[in-house]
Amino acid sequence: MEEVIRHVVPLFMLCLGVSFIINTEQWIRYNKETVENTHRLLPLGLFLLAFGLAIVSAHNVWEASWWVAVTIFGWIMAIKGAGFLILSKHIYKFHIWPDRVLHIMLLCTGILMALVGLFLSYEVFGGA
């Protein structure tokens, strides 16, 4: 299972990061609509929690290498998913940033995720 995680997560990070960069305005609109309709967080929370826990249970690597990024990514997903499930009624209190700030956050997160995903994908599929 760890081998599957090592193949899937880097590509997922790469695709999501590029999506944040290319579709920034759509992500901002999605964020606003989700804050206004917090019931949308429940299926998202289920997905994030399940995928995050699958990553952490199969790949809980804490070593001085780039693969720790996959573990951290898994823990972030699991914690965020649990938060969405447990605190969905209160989540709007945490998402009150102006569009400009969301735009910068999405671009920075997208660039970071895409670069780490690209590097790890190279390690898996094209490295020595």
What characteristics describe this protein?
128 residues, mainly alpha, globular
Please tell me about this protein's structure:
It is a single chain. The chain is mainly α and 128 residues long. It is globular. The longest helix is centred in the last third of the chain and has 28 residues, at 99-126. The chain is 77% helix and 0% strand. The protein has one domain.
Determine the N-to-C terminus distance: 22 Å
Oligomer category? single chain
Number of helices: 5
**Major β-sheet annotation:** none
Tell me how many strands there are. Answer: 0
Structural class: mainly alpha
Low-confidence stretches: none
The rounded Rg comes to 15 Å
| Helical amount | over 70%
Tell me the number of structural domains: 1
What general form does the structure show?
globular
SSE arrangement, N to C: HHHHH
Mean pLDDT: 90
How much strand? Answer: under 5%
